[in-house]
Predict the structure of Ribosomal RNA small subunit methyltransferase E.
Amino acid sequence: MSGRRRFIVSSRSIRDGYASYDGPQHHHMARVLRLRSGDEVMLIDEQGRRHLGVIDQVTQEWTAVRLTETLEASQFPDAPAITVIQGLPKGEKIELVLQKGTELGVSEFSIFRADRSVPKLAGDKLQGRIERWNRIVAEAARQSERFDQPTVAWHPSAAAAAAGAANAELKLLLWERGAPTPLREVLEGMPRPARIAIAIGPEGGFEPGEAEAFSFWGFTPVTLGERILRTETAALAMTAIVQYKWGDI
């Protein structure tokens, strides 16, 4: 099973034991990977089911896959679902967080306009940026052969982003001010949570009022030590640490 190419599929695209692809996904399968009839693949739908299949037909416009077996999501152990709550940084840094975070296994990106965020997004500009962010995570999920694709959400403030993670069992706020607890101490001896939320500010970090909003929703202020990391480095470092402890790294 491990040698099969993996692709994300919508359950709506599966009919009568077949799945079909067109557009960019077809191009990737047929032109980039050069898959041909008879090649074995694995398709993962939005419910976590894994469909084993064989390429049945490749035309100029679409690729058809004949499904041979479906494995329910309950047959596979789950790693924690990780939400990265990221204050919008300058330039293309958010794109790095999205791409590399997807490769590391982030389940959801919750991007918010922080008090110290320099970019001001609204209206069509915001919608266009969200569409681009979704394309980035889709491509990164495909490249890394993930079993799923992360979601991307936008929030107008830190308080709204904090409230959106209310159901997380472990909530971490990377906060270098005050008296934060070393991350190592917080994680030591803790049982594996089902959902983890990690909040990171933009350049310059959080304003005190934003940190208070996260604390109100149960976030624990933590530190990675004496070094102050760039916002994009902090997001990826935190993700890698919790994935190493409880995930699939």
